[in-house]
Write a structure and sequence with these properties.
The chain is about 15% helix and about 40% strand. It is α+β, with helices and mostly antiparallel strands. The chain has a single domain, classed as L,D-transpeptidase catalytic domain-like (Beta Barrel). Strands 3-2-1-9-4 form a 5-stranded mixed β-sheet, with helices on one face. A 4-stranded mixed β-sheet has the order 5-6-7-8, with helices on one face. A hairpin with a 2-residue loop joins strand 2 (about 25-30) and strand 3 (about 35-40).
Length: about 130
C-alpha cells in the first residue's frame, strides 16, 4: 500500500499542470499535460521549519503578496497550496538549490512568474512534494 502511495506521488498527472518538488534534491519539475516542461532549483524549509509533503491543489493565487507572518517579506507570484504555504519568487536567488525558507517553496522570480502564468492559463495546478 505504501509503495502505491509513493508511486502516485512520483508520477505526474496526465493533464494540466503538476509542480513536483523533490526536497532532497531541492528541485522542482513542472509537467504540462504529463510532459516535463521545466526543471528548476528551489529552496524549501531550512532546519527548524517544515515544508509539508503530500499532494495539494493550488488554492489562492496572488501576483504580489507580503507575508503576514514574516515582517511583510515579499512573495511575488504566490501560489498558495496549504494554508499559508506557497510557491513564490524570491530575491535570495543565491540560496536556490539549498534549504533556506520558513516552509514555502522558493523559486527565482522569472520561474515563479512562468509557473504563475501556466497555472492561470490552465485554471489551476497540482503540487506534489516529496521528501
Amino acid at each position: 500500500m505504501a509503495a502505491l502511495a509513493l508511486l502516485a506521488l512520483a508520477t505526474p498527472a496526465s493533464a494540466g499542470i503538476v509542480a513536483r518538488v523533490d526536497q532532497s534534491a531541492q528541485r522542482m519539475r513542472v509537467y504540462v499535460d504529463g510532459a516535463l516542461a521545466y526543471d528548476w532549483p528551489v529552496s524549501t524549509a531550512r532546519a527548524g521549519y517544515v515544508t509539508p509533503n503530500g499532494r495539494f491543489r493550488v488554492g489562492r493565487m496572488e501576483p504580489f503578496w507580503r507575508s503576514r507572518k514574516y515582517n511583510g517579506a515579499p512573495m511575488p507570484h504566490a501560489l498558495f497550496f496549504r494554508g499559508g504555504y506557497a510557491i513564490h519568487g524570491t530575491g535570495d536567488i543565491g540560496r536556490l538549490g539549498r534549504r533556506a525558507s520558513h516552509g514555502c517553496v522558493r523559486l527565482s522570480p522569472s520561474h515563479a512568474r512562468a509557473l504563475f502564468g501556466l497555472t492561470a492559463r490552465h485554471g489551476g495546478a497540482q503540487v506534489s512534494i516529496v521528501p
